[in-house]
Amino acid sequence: MSNASKLNRLRPVDYVIMIFIGIASLFCLLPMVHILALSFSSNGAIMAGKVTLWPVGFNLDAYKAVFQHAAMVRSLGFTVVLVVLFTAIAMFMTVIAAYPLTKHKLRGRNFFLLMIVFTMFFSGGIIPDYLLMRGLKLLDTMWVLILPGAISAFYLIILKTFFSSIPVELEESARMDGASHFRILWNVYLPLSLPALATLSLFYAVGRWNGFQDALIYISSSHLYPIQLKLYELVISGQVSDMAIMEAQNRGAPVPESLKAASIMFGTVPILLVYPWLQRYFISGVMLGAVKG
Amino acid sequence: MKAIKFTEKKEAEGLPLLTRTSRRMDARTDRRSENPGARWGRSIIPVIRDWQLYLMLILPLAYFVVFKYIPMFGVVVAFKDYNIFKGIWASEWIGFAAFREVFQMDMFWNALRNTFVLNILDLIIGFPIPIILALLLNELRVRWFKRTAQTVLYLPHFISWIIIGSIAIQLLATNSGSVNIFLGKLGLDPIPFLGDPLLWIFTYVGTGIWRDAGWGTILYLAALTSINKELYEAADVDGATRLRKMWHISLPGIRPTIVILLIISVGHMASIGFDRPFTLGNPMVSDVSEVISTYVYTVGIQSARYTIATAIGLFQAVVGLIFLLGADYTSRRVNGHGIF
User: Fold this and answer.
1) Which helix (H) or strand (E) holds A263?
2) pLDDT value of residue A97
3) Chain A interface, mutation test: which of B91, B99, B135, B158, most A Cβ atoms within 10 Å?
4) Distance from the Cα of residue B8 to its chain's centroid
5) What residues contact A41, with CB distance under 8 A and at least 6 apart?
6) Separation CA A38–CA B178 (nearest Å)
7) Which CATH superfamily is domain B99-335 in?
């Protein structure tokens, strides 16, 4: 396809549509660009309202302040560890649940599926969850942010649907050769499902990175604050009682606005980094989800 | 018929009888059935044969029992005068007393009303936008432009509500928000986007559109690509304009998708996420921003009134389930298949 011949046929209506979509895209992008500009801007310029989409009085003070802010750095580090561990455990659990459920001969399969799907439509609510976590002595530990979400019923169904699309002949011939189910899963199913596994890993990772409510309810020690809770404390709840920020203000260096903006960027950048990979796979993931399992 | 004949033939050969279904389904079971004692084993043999599969399922099933089903039975707290020291079982039964109390709380009705109002506005304002966007994206002929636009439009969906709430404050706060500073420079009065109840509702709906309108186009775009190209070619021959083709071919082509997504949206009318109202809300607008999910948090976690909060949560879960089942029923009537 040559672009030139395509462009030749463009009519005025094409340009109207392009302009409309272009505006919608800018509408999505501009708030982020503005925050980015704020994070690099000087104190005075922000207060005077000079900053729009480009840094005014370019400096890195806000980022330096974030890096000197011990609690923020620790929170970032903790969240990275949390996301990696969570994704590994969640993927393991989802895979070992999805594989047996694709086997139609498995006794009790329909019962297990019903049991799993039902949890998508009814839950005990946050108080019974909270009481359970307390009973299990998980409150205010790292595990309370990992175990309760270790399998998403929805992602499980997506993976099961994907596994079902793998030709059964492959499995049968492996069975003939005497391979166990563990081997078949590892050597046949997993290598053939890499796109689906990548999609779901990214979804789990993004979900954990963005997760907030469970940390708000279950975590009370500040050294276990994941990044979203830290951001909430810093930017939204306004209970800024942190020494680093007060010192920064006394020095007349970055105002909280640019510091807040820099913190927001820290919370967003990892998502932007994985986004290209996410985007490559998520459409197939969403389509799989739309197909009934 | 075939299966029966098959069984009879095997019987004639003097082999022990096994269930017809398992003969049809699994040749391997047949071979095992030649062993003596297979009659008893017809239910246990598949279980032994699949022991590896059951082994794999142990952990996941334990997960669902512990983290999903135990809390479901934990809703008995709503019917007990829950005492932290006695625990759930030793606490006294109080029947529906907690529900009677909940139904007399003004704050509860307020939160319930807000839940429905915000969801309905989300639906009315937010539902058509992805359809329009998808129809327009589908008309784009410049490939790179279309792909770039899609990338940008999907992006906000992956940003957490905490970040979006933070951005909203940075942009829209009455005194320090960038938009109001800009308005001030033009000599205009600041607009309290987050401080005025009515404006707050629009901010709430607007942020929802910002985050999810682009994402919502995916299923429509997929439906649009499956429309038969010949329909467009035939319309071209008849001299139809772009707008007419959109109206008479594209829109009817995605009608089934629109209907099912609408039914699903209505099915979720009674449930509302926690992060969005919680991060956007503030004390000035709590009259309109307090919804069921945030109210359960306030009552249950902050005030530790477990029985009352569990009752509210259970009420919402049941109403939510009724809505979903209603949506499923509607879908079966309209589309011939359910939403699950």
Assistant:
1) helix A256-290
2) 97
3) B158
4) 51
5) A51, A55, A56, A57, A58, A59, A258
6) 10
7) MetI-like (1.10.3720.10)
Phi-psi region of B26 (alpha: psi -120 to 50; beta: other; left: phi over 0): beta
Task: Name which of A8-17, A25-34, A248-257, B22-31 the model is least confident about.
Answer: B22-31
Query: In the prediction, which pLDDT does A283 show?
Result: 67
Q: Where are the domains of chain B?
A: 2-95, 99-335
All residues of chain B having their beta carbon less than 8 Å from the beta carbon of residue A150 are: 63, 67
d(CA A264, CA A275): 17
What confidence score (pLDDT) does residue A2 get?
A: 45
pLDDT tens figures, B160-200: 999 999 999 888 988 778 888 888 888 889 899 998 999 99
**ipTM of the shown complex:** 0.86
Six-digit token string for A287? 């389509």
pTM passes above 0.95: no
Contact A130, B322 (CB under 8 A): no
| CATH 3.40.50.2300 for the A70-241 domain, yes or no | no
Question: Cβ–Cβ of A18/B145 closer than 8 Å?
Answer: yes
Written as one letter, the residue type at A182 is F
Q: Domain locations in chain A?
A: 70-241
What contacts A261, CB < 8 A, 6 or more positions away? A35, A36, A38, A39, A62, B170
For residue A122, list chain B residues with Cβ-Cβ distance below 8 A: 72, 317, 320-321
**CA A69 to each of CA A82, A128, A159: distance values in angstroms, whole numbers, following the listed order:** 20, 36, 41
Residue A127 to residue B74, Cβ atoms within 8 A: yes
B266: amino acid identity, one letter? V
* AA letter at B58: I
Nearest to B310 by CA among A131, A137, A217: A131
Rounded to a whole number of angstroms, the CA Rg of chain A reads: 24
Contact B77 A131 (CB under 8 A): yes
